[in-house]
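Forum: Protein Structure Q&A
Topic: Joint prediction for protein chains with partners

I've read a bunch of threads here and the consensus seems to be that you should model interacting components together rather than docking separate models afterwards. I'd like to see that in practice. Below is the full input, 680 residues plus whatever partners are listed. Could one of the regulars post the assembled result?
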Amino acid sequence: MDEKRLINEINQQIKNKVNLMEVCGTHTHEIKRLGLESVLSNNVNLISGPGCPVCVSSCGMIDQAIECLKDKKTIVTFGDMVKVKGTTSSLKEMKIKGYKVIVIYSPLDLFNIIRNNIDEEIIFLGVGFETTAPVIASVIKQMKKSNQKNVSFLLDIKRMKPILIYILSKNHKINGIVAPGHVATITGSEYFRFITEDYHISCAICGFTSLDILSGIYYLSKHKGKLQFINLYSRAVRPNGNPLAKNIINEVFEESDAYWRGIGSIKYSGYRLNSEYKDYDAINKYQLNIVHNEIDNDCCCDKIMLGLKKPTECKYFRIICHPNNPLGPCMVSSEGCCLAYYKYGRKYG
Amino acid sequence: MDKITLVHGEGGSVSEELIQNHIKKQFNNVYLKQKLDSALIDVSKKIAFTTDSYVVKPLFFSGGDIGRLAVSGTVNDLMTVFSTPLFLSCSFIIEEGFEMKSFNRILKSMKETCLEANVEIVTGDTKVVPKGDADGLYINTSGIGMVDKNHVKPLEEGDTIIVSGSLALHGTVILVDRYQLKMDMSITSDCKPLNYLLEVINKYKDGINMMRDPTRGGLGTLLNEISTQNKVTIEINEETIPFHDEVKAVNELLGIDPLYVSSEGRMVFVVKSEIANEMVNDLKKLEDGENASIIGRIKNKNRDSIVYMNTKIGGKRIVGALDDLILPRIC
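Posted by a regular:
Agreed with the consensus. Here's the joint model:
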């Protein structure tokens, strides 16, 4: 079936409102890029969950990275992170002021940077979910193996399951979850089965093409009322995931509490370096004190991520909160829900 | 000397040697032979006059180099106002220690591109700055073109938008280098002077309302500029915008929308709808023009100044102006 036929089928079969949450930022981005909402029935309500690690990164992490820069250290990080605001500034603003911020595409680039800057203290500021965790873990492992002394890691790695439990334990109106194929590639599809078994909500694990996403929406809306759990991304996702990746995560990290921008601290919702790797933990190495401030407590990103509010219902949307001054997580990265509304949400034609 | 040093910029005999044996050796013409501080040119018509600075990194890339870019970019800007490019100026700002071999390679490339574009470099300047004060080499070129008649006309509802070939090749080649992606690619930069389009432009000039080149900021930024400046709504169709598969793949990998990635050898035409099909067919016959395509139209006039896209699945979405640096997303 092609996309247009699937859209017709979805629109014909859906008679009542169905609220579907996609948790992955890549799904959100693709949905907006395709203009999916403009062709799907108004009964399909797509809610963007907290699935972009950049968006939910803690202000405190950025604040500490900025303190490290002032202390003459070099921060290496991913592109999107330089735009994210801490309490007062961002890495981009610090870079303009002349502090040393290096943007990389892959954590593996760290090896070259360390070799070329042997006299500098280098801190890698890394964020991600289970998808990114194995690559970062393997880099840290190799750093330890080669006894690198001038590098440490300031990490804000999140786990998908605790945030989903947080959302589903609250008052919500979600009828189905489009689960993230990237995370499931690592964790396995079984990792998401609790959604259906414990919280009685249907779940489809989906890939990232237009057909993948539409198939998920089709499946979840077709079976509204009947509990379903399905892996629609079986070409990449196995029931138990990738054992090598899971092993390296367990070897280097341990579960820890994590702070979610706009939401707060959630028990065991992140990973930190375990005791064997504590010399590579920047927090430990430099005795950093992470204070989890929020830029504004009235920001309603948490309600937006729960599907209880639309971005346009937020009093700050477009007025104070915009891409160059994001208050909450949803306006931060290109995959945030508020930014998508900001960019694509106007009328056309 | 195998490296350029500060003394090359001091104006003495070493400077003279650099100018005579390297720069003028490539660019020699009657105007440079005048040996005056300014070139004297007879002009009896309306002229087009433009300038641009080139700071591309890397200096040498697949399909071109900073020299080819510096000639093409300015020539192409002259062409967008329906002028025939004739004369360029050329200023170099060179970092101390720059390899003479690389400099000669850039000069040669500029000479070849000038021949291709049928323009002459008639005046110039060279400055050398201490190591660390510049990054290798920067070039500024200004250009003069002759205007027969001002052909830029108001846009009308129903006008058709055409692109002269596959888009975003230049920016993608640079991105691959910038992010040190180790991949085997067949694509090269599209960087080239657009004179080869003149034949088609002259044939259809009465029906062409506007020409613009989608350089920095790509097609997306250009269409937003056209929309805002002319108070028109622009509709484009995703499936007809020509992107090479490798361009799509690299940009997807980096999380970048190729709509905002630059081309350096392409033209966007807004033309009367009745000539559109015939003109595209003629563009397709040109070398490297096989992907010329009708990509959209002027939907409304004097309503919303917006650009929107009909997506491949039949959806609609806004194509907004770029509001930040292009950075790769990670998730």
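Chain B touches chain A through 29 residues (CB under 8 Å).
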